[in-house]
Design goal:
The complex is a heterodimer. By secondary structure, chain A is α+β, with helices and mostly antiparallel strands. Chain A is built from five helices and twelve strands. The longest helix of chain A is centred in the first third of the chain and has 29 residues, at 38-66. In chain B, the strands form four sheets. Chain B has a two-stranded antiparallel ribbon with strand order 1-5. In chain B, strands 2-3 form a two-stranded antiparallel ribbon. In chain B, strands 4-8 form a two-stranded parallel sheet. The longest helix of chain B has 33 residues, at 407-439. Chains A and B meet through helix 2, strand 1 and helix 5 of A and helix 5, helix 7, helix 8, helix 9 and strand 5 of B.
């Protein structure tokens, strides 16, 4: 290279972009060392990446301005018939007779292997767990051991613990509160307002009614209570249930009323369930009882 | 300067020479460097998906170091005061630790979440581009199927990742997922119990989602990406119609030095967007939602957009439950099992459905324009309207807040809109496509009022003749994907060159793999 020849200088904009990128990355290191917080960390490293991107984009634009458009033949398509035949022949060569039978048996054994491989999947839900249909149809309240209603902290509840218009989430006693099925809403209303379905006249105690907290649509906890209208609203898909009339769904996609729990009191005046819910709690499935 | 420069160049050459001594890659390397990439922005959507996947892998690996995939309870001790000393699951505690106690952890966690949105968003836009240009047609059916499979995997993995922190919002999402599994015909309850290890919430769901989220699905995605790109390299890119562009060639920039730099710029831009968002835009602050308890819920409870359309469908579908042959057909079966099943089933099969509709069995490498297939375009626009409205329905509460109308009214409007608007937008799309086809205007906005009016009889014929003449005058310019392309199997003339190539004056130059074509290139 002749020293007299004047050398073109590198495009300044690209140099500056990469330079700023390097500075910002160094800034990230400083920000990390000084613990300057999430926004500074993100802005320095993200900003650095952005400047690198900008530099590369300008550079590629400069190349593009000098580069023409190119054409390439596609060179893809069906192979010549002869070549294809040779390939096919090579594939189906049978040094041992009746390969079809052998491949058939091989296929059978592989199917058996696949079938066998399904069995360990059963361990994902061990058989000690019980039949899903049974578990979905009953809750812990069906067992005498769990009949008391308790708060999340395990404290027994008396009807007078609730004011009229108050709502409380209760659980079966001696039972893991993390299991969804037991979540029960206790709501105290004016007893004279109650219009429970026939046969449930005695299911409320001093105006306290108990419904499953699980929406019958997609299992979300029915977490919102409108005190003045006595309605429960599910925040997931907005089903609305009428508390005074046995919690039928009056608006929205839920197909069943919220199952009701028959309430009573023990000799000490604490709330107990006098049996299981009026129906399976939560969403329905193909085995939902008729 | 030159003294500093030359030893570097010499070193590069020597090392390449040594490598070539052992691998002999110069010929393949030369071909690779001159691979042609078409110059159109819409070809970058797939690349954005690829690069956000890289961001996901890099940020994800960092997160695995600190995340504890455990449902077991432990006490959180850290900087987030409201939770300090409380007993929560290891998954939730470690997510809060990543956010509050690991320096830089929140940037990475949020960048990971934003990158997931970019990933799925880019895949969806890429899918739309392929759909509306008809590039799922022969010979690209395989890559369409692989692409749709990757979309499904991406959505499932995003949902799994969203669920891992064991926070209140994602736990509610898992409960809905459990009830959707329950609604799978006949096997539903078993499927749900096997997934969760018992009645909801089971005990091990975090432990089970973790290997799927960090290994199984990403590995599958990596495999499918490799296949997707392998097929792309073999078949070469499709390209938009233009002078000199034919089914048998591909026109664009060379990989090196042009395209590689442009693509690297895109890689850094995608990373920059994810990291900047990760540092500056809060996403999924799980400490605000709190840890998951199956008896508690946040309000509002809204899902991430890529599954929210199912949520919207769940909200709009009226309660329908009936018994048939001793089985109960759950109401959530229709919107949450059948609808997604049909959606992805139809997407998978679309190349063959489209073949039925259009009768088009030909090989295509020139991208069609939406106007060339008015029925396909109309179906696409109608589908986008349908899913868009379902997405809107998943934000019902916002509409209620904004309009102050009761939820019942909003829902009635949305139900009507979901059932009627797709027909309207589909019809408009069909009419616009037909008008564009007739007018040869560049885009919908360039159409004049006269061109929008339906034409009949002589008028139409006159127009067509006029256009035909013009095309003849300019020679066999492949106008808008109408290039006659005879695959070798039909024409009988067999060549390894992708069938006969029409002569357009450039033929004499075809000895080289590629060659200089024109002066300054046309910008798209």
């Amino acid at each position: 290279m002749s020293p007299v020849q004047k050398k073109e200088s590198a495009p300044k904009s690209v140099v500056v972009c990469f330079g700023i990128g390097a500075l910002l990355f160094a800034g990230f290191a400083v920000a990390y060392a000084l613990d300057l917080g999430t926004p500074v960390l993100g802005a320095t490293i993200g900003g650095g990446l952005a400047f690198i991107a900008l530099g590369l984009a300008i550079w590629s634009q400069l190349i593009d301005d000098k580069e023409p458009e190119y054409v390439e033949e596609r060179n893809v398509g069906p192979s010549p018939e002869e070549e294809f035949d040779t390939f096919h022949e090579a594939l189906v060569t049978e040094p041992v007779p009746r390969a079809r039978v052998l491949w058939g048996m091989f296929g059978l054994s592989m199917t058996a292997l696949g079938g066998a491989a399904l069995f360990p999947l059963r361990s994902f839900y061990p058989s000690e767990g019980g039949n899903p249909d049974d578990l979905l149809t009953h809750t812990a309240f069906a067992h005498p051991r769990h009949r008391h209603l308790v708060t999340e902290e395990g404290v027994l509840i008396k009807p007078d613990d609730l004011e009229i218009g108050e709502v409380l989430t209760a659980f079966p006693s001696n039972y893991d509160t993390r299991v969804a099925e037991g979540a029960t809403l206790l709501i105290r209303v004016d007893p004279s307002d109650l219009q429970l379905p026939a046969g449930r006249e005695t299911w409320a105690v001093d105006g306290v009614v108990a419904y499953s907290k699980l929406c019958t649509h997609a299992g979300c906890p029915v977490g919102l209570y409108a005190q003045e209208s006595n309605q429960l609203l599910c925040p997931c898909h907005h089903s609305i249930f009428d508390v005074l009339r046995g919690a039928p769904c009056i608006e929205g996609p839920a197909p069943h009323p919220l199952p009701q729990l028959p309430l009573g009191t023990d000799p000490d005046g604490y709330l107990v369930a006098r049996g299981d819910f009026s129906g399976p709690v939560g969403a329905s499935w193909w085995g939902y009882p008729a | 300067m030159s003294m500093l420069h030359r030893p570097g160049k010499q070193l590069l050459r020597t090392s390449l020479r040594k490598a070539d001594d052992r691998l002999g890659f110069a010929s393949v390397g030369k071909t690779a460097l001159s691979k042609i990439f078409p110059d159109h922005w819409s070809f970058m959507l797939g690349e954005i998906a690829l690069y956000s996947f890289l961001v996901l892998v890099v940020t994800g690996v960092y997160l695995t170091v600190f995340f504890e995939p455990s449902s077991a309870l432990r006490v959180y001790h850290g900087h987030y005061a409201p939770l300090n000393g409380q007993e929560v699951s290891g998954a939730f505690a470690s997510t809060v630790e990543i956010s509050w106690d690991v320096r830089g952890g929140l940037v990475i966690r949020q960048a990971h979440h934003w990158a997931a949105h970019v990933f799925i968003g880019a895949i969806v836009l890429h899918l739309c581009r392929i759909y509306f240009t008809g590039m799922f047609r022969k010979p690209r059916e395989m890559n369409w199927v692989i692409g749709v499979t990757m979309l499904v995997l991406a959505i499932l993995n995003a949902f799994a990742g969203y669920s891992l922190p064991d926070d209140l919002l994602s736990g509610t999402g898992l409960h809905i997922f459990y009830t959707i599994e329950e609604a799978v015909p006949w096997l539903g309850d078993w499927l749900a119990f096997l997934t969760f290890g018992g009645p909801f919430p089971g005990r091990y769901i975090i432990e089970r989602l973790y290997p799927l989220h960090i290994f199984v699905v990403p590995a599958l995605l990596a495999l499918l990406i490799t296949l997707h790109m392998g097929i792309l390299i073999r078949q070469k890119h499709s390209h938009f119609a233009g002078p000199g562009r034919r089914d048998a060639n591909v026109v664009g920039s060379r990989m090196w030095p042009s395209y590689a730099l442009r693509s690297m710029a895109l890689l850094f831009a995608v990373a920059a967007v994810c990291v900047l968002a990760g540092g500056l835009a809060q996403i999924n602050p799980v400490w605000v939602w709190g840890d998951f308890k199956s008896s508690t819920i946040t309000s509002p409870s809204v899902a991430d957009w890529y599954i929210a359309w199912i949520e919207g469908a769940l909200r709009l579908w009226p309660p329908t439950e009936f018994h048939v042959l001793g089985f109960d057909v759950p109401t959530q079966f229709w919107p949450a099992v059948l609808l997604p099943g049909l959606t992805f089933g139809l997407l998978w099969l679309w190349p063959w459905v489209d073949r039925r509709i259009t009768g088009d069995r030909g090989t295509h490498h020139i991208t069609g324009r939406p106007r060339e297939a008015p029925v396909r375009t109309a179906i696409g626009v109608a589908a986008l309207t349908f899913y868009g409205l379902l997405l809107l329905a998943s934000g019902e509460e916002l509409l209620v807040e904004w309009s102050r109308w009761p939820i019942g009214t909003i829902r009635a409007i949305l139900r009507t809109a979901v059932l009627s608007l797709p027909w309207v937008t589909g019809a408009i799309a069909y009419w616009l496509a037909r008008s564009l086809q007739r007018s040869k205007a560049e885009g919908a906005l360039r159409l004049s009022a006269a061109q929008l009016r339906p034409r009949h009889g002589e008028q139409q014929q006159e127009l067509e003749e006029h256009e035909e003449k013009e095309i003849r005058k300019t020679g066999p310019v492949p106008a808008a994907g109408l290039t006659p392309y005879e695959p070798a199997e039909h024409s009988g003339s067999v060549s390894g060159n992708g069938g006969p190539v029409e002569s357009d004056g450039d033929r004499s130059l075809s000895e080289e793999t590629f060659w200089l074509k024109r002066g300054p290139k046309e910008r798209r």
